[in-house]
Amino acid sequence: MKHETIETNAGWLIILTLLVISIGGLVEIVPLYYIDETVEDVDGVRPYTPLELRGRDMYLREGCYTCHSQMIRPFRDEELRYGHYSLAAESKYDHPFQWGSKRTGPDLARVGGKYSNEWHVQHLKAPRSVVPESIMPDYPWLVENKLDYSQIEDRMRALKAVGVPYSETQQEYQANVEKFGKDVADKLHIPKADQNLVDEAQQGNYDGDNSDITEMDAIVAYLQVLGTMVDFSKYDEGEFVEYR
User: Fold this and answer.
1) Entry pTM
2) 57 shares its domain with 83
3) Rounded to an integer, what distance in angstroms lies between the CA atom of residue 153 and that of residue 190?
4) Strands, E, within 65-124: which ranges?
5) 113 and 14 in a common domain
6) What residues does 167 pair with on adjacent strands?
7) What pLDDT, in 10s, does the model give residues 155-195?
8) Contact 50/186 with Cβ under 8 angstroms?
């Protein structure tokens, strides 16, 4: 059958298009029935602390996701630049996830610990002062605005409703102690959210000024945790291939 015949015959075009789509769909769907789990079994991944969670809110509010992705693809050039490719497990507590679809700026999946707190503060206040070629806008108000965390408990309860293991009862708290350890479980306990947020901000001193808790404290805390939860040195190369 000539290609011209297919293009000029609506019936053949519809039939063959559906056939191609069906084959493509089966190639993607059938393997899923032979995979027990698509989320990797790794240690270290935990929900965000109250301060990190508010920082993520700032990240979303300012539209950072429109220019920065948080998904390193399994290609050699990406791994050389950004590090180990992203795992599904690293985003399992994100609602919504921040994988992104555009990179006007670099991927941020593993930005945590790459720069100092001071660098992040300066970069957010005046990007071109540290990266001359940057086209990122300035965000000076982040260090000027006090952080509003009056609704942090409600925000954590909302995430708990969709499966994020924040605890409210003693039973839930004990389950988190067994799963994440006591130090992490304490930070995930909703009744202590306000005090946990204040303590983390003061101890971390993310914006360089302990006189108050600002939006800058929160967003830097969030950036500094990205990509730091999984210790990839514990896993052999190719460990996660079975999940792909």
Assistant:
1) 0.86
2) yes
3) 6
4) none
5) no
6) 189
7) 999 999 999 999 999 999 999 999 999 999 999 999 999 99
8) no
